[in-house]
Amino acid sequence: MTITIYHNTACGTSRNTLALIRNTGVEPVIIDYVKNPPTREQLLDLIARAGLSVRAVMRDKGALYDELGLANPDLSDAALLDAMQAHPILINRPIVVTELGVRLCRPSEKVLEILPLPQQGAFAKEDGQAVVGADGKPVA
């Protein structure tokens, strides 16, 4: 079983998602997508498999998004992809791939939808918010 996470260590949501994956007892393939971005074809495949639009996978926070005028609704998918290829930090994260599917894991607990193994114990996010109880089940 292979789980792959397109990860950014500077992102709390990405770190929490990675920790939830590890809470199943699996060590995923970790791709630092800022240093090793997916190819355009790989990115398009991830977007399609996640059932998202190109715009939905674009990170819209930060100065770079504004500086490049990426909020313009008239920009084509190709233009948005060009921006993400030129500036991988614009790819929203984390994206997780398992045998059960692909998800943009925002919030981090979205990863629970596609993890093939159960949580092995309690889990709380970095901010202390409980996500999984001691029984390994999601907290309501």
TrEMBL record:
Query: Which terms are listed as keywords in the entry?
Result: Arsenical resistance, Oxidoreductase
InterPro entries attached here? Arsenate_reductase, Arsenate_reductase-like, Thioredoxin-like_sf
Reaction(s) the record says it catalyses: [glutaredoxin]-dithiol + arsenate + glutathione + H(+) = glutathionyl-S-S-[glutaredoxin] + arsenite + H2O
Enzyme Commission numbers on file? 1.20.4.1
Please give the biological process terms from Gene Ontology that the record holds: response to arsenic-containing substance
Query: What PROSITE patterns does UniProt report for this protein, alphabetically?
Result: ARSC
Q: Which domain of life is it from?
A: Bacteria
Q: Which GO terms describe its molecular function?
A: arsenate reductase (glutaredoxin) activity
Q: Which family does it belong to?
A: Belongs to the ArsC family.
Q: What is this protein called?
A: Arsenate reductase
Originating species = Janthinobacterium violaceinigrum
